[in-house]
Amino acid sequence: MSNSTATQGASAAAQKAHAEIIEQCQRIYYDVRLEALAQWKKEDPSRTAVGFLPVYAPREIFVGAGVRPVAVFGGGDQVNVICGDSFYQSYICHLPRSVVELGLTSWKSALDGLVCPAICDVIRNVSGVWQVLFKDKLTYFLDLPQNFDSAVGGKFYRRQLEELAERLCQMSRTKFDQDRFAEALRSYNRNRRAVRALCNLRVDKPHWVPAWEFYLLMRAGDQMDADGHSEILLKYMDVVSELDRAEQDNARIMIVGGFCEQPPLNLIRTIERSGCYLVDDDFTLGARFLEADAAEDGDPLQALVDVYLRHSTYSSVKYEGDVPKSKQLVETARDRRADGVLLMSPSFCDPSLLDRPHFQRALEDAGIPYSTLQYAENLGQFGPIREQTGTFAEAIKLWGEG
Amino acid sequence: MADEKRAGSAKTSTTPLVQKDESMEIQKRMLAEHAEKLWRAKEEGKKVVYTFVPGNLTELILAAGALPVYPEINALQSGMRNLSADYIQEAERIGHSEDVCTYVKCDVGMMLKGNVGPTGVKLPEPDLLLLSYTGCFVFMKWFENLKQYYNCPCVMLHVPYQADGAITDSMRQYVVDQISEQVIPALEKVTGNKIDMGELRRRMELSRQAEDDLVWALQSAKRKPSPIDAYFVGVYYIGPMFSAFRGTEDAAEYYRALRREI
Ligand code: SF4
User: Fold this and answer.
1) Is the ipTM beyond the 0.90 threshold?
2) Is the domain defined by B47-194 classed in CATH 3.40.50.11890?
3) Which of A47, A105, A252, A360 is 20 to 30 Å apart from A165, CA to CA?
4) Ligand 1 pocket: which residues have CB below 6 Å?
């Protein structure tokens, strides 16, 4: 009796802790207007915050320059785009529209600048639009190297990072703090380890880590410092082990292609509810872009360069070099024990859509079932997708090898 | 002078003849000769390099003794000859989205249907893909796609974006490093020829002459009335300079003739 009470007690405590974590993450996720950040800055006007667009930016540099890094993804399905549409043609994805819309409205008091990593023509154009619209703020185009030789691309990237540090320091009117930078490197290493642990947990026990919760947990890192975020992830992993979540007869699905413009949260829920466990995805890929720790015992700047060159993940926004991405996709799917792959791209997204044909071919050759779909961040109709992914999951279960 | 020729022919002939200027005839000959060289490339053991128009390194390709092919130009010409629709459909059949650039799809579709170029001649397969990534992100994806089909190496030249409208030392060095450490070795390996810097210099000098005359021609549009119009600039004048003829005597001759005519 006392044992059972104790178990029930632990479970109730776990449930409460779990609910609190998810609520905290939701608060951050829904704050696309960055109101909490604006409030944080208001409390001390010397504080500075700079946003960065998908996919990856070295946040350690921001911290070293005394700037709070903020991952921004546009407005999702929460923003009614009015001005943003007038900047882009109809055949351009949705993300830049809501980024411009929010820039012109809510982000003014929250962000002191925007870093635009070189991932596609659209983001490059956003950097130009930003430069023109916000002359009083920092705009930095981070030209990530497409050459991964340390004597060539590495040298260029190092200079890019030095320049980024200089520009951030000019804006924040501080000197670059090497100690703070080295500490940030360690914090983000810890954070990447926590993220990897969570990813592994969902591969092993996808019923413990529903996809929408995983997504919210990752998005919570957008605005938080690395250690705060790691703490949440570690706590979540502790808590879910006590929740006693039952395993269902779902298909194990890996999603690829949504690394930039994000799907609405309800789309992720829809896919999951249609009978899929998501064992991997590339939403919020930035937090997982580096697949190993940056070396902590040497020059931290060089460590960031080296880890990017040698251990950044394969992605549609990176040149594949000698190892075809399609091969890496198949290896990842096998490693995650995925029953099928959903190639899921934002409409009009060149990097994602142009990888689709060779991804499809590689999956066919490997005998891995796949399905394709397109979405926009403000998608509102989920019925057809539910049918499609539900049928996909059913087909896998009926005719799959398992 | 050209106008007098046209007027004269209109008076003396019942069926109006199209009178071509000397520069047009030169360009026509250049294109025909290049097509012929490509057609015979494999037979003659010439290596073929596929590359892009913006920021192309034609002088270097020619100095290595290889022949350039420009998939963008094939796509453009297929469009002009009404051949694109079938090619695009073919590419969409293997998974290319309706949402993406039709140049890529036209080229991929053409390849899937046997790689017969817009002039009806089968194009030689590439021995090297020289990915001059000069701003259009799609270029990178385009050659990543071609890499899956052609069993040949691919070398990239990433040209940084001038976000502040200026070229920095670091950008320049990055380009120099890529050309000297990767592009030149790749060309030399594929062709088996050591690039002769004297020959490269000579070709770059020819490009300079051609470019000076082209710029002169474009600047002539400032006159009122302008002796040139956008149609001829777009269809004829820019052709040799932005394609297979940079660094050739033919291109220098073409632009000299154009300048005389204007
Ligand atoms: S969704 Fe795709 S095309 Fe649009 S900004 Fe992102 S990477 Fe570029």
Assistant:
1) yes
2) yes
3) A105
4) A 93, 95-96, 119-120, 122-123, 260-261, 346, 349-352
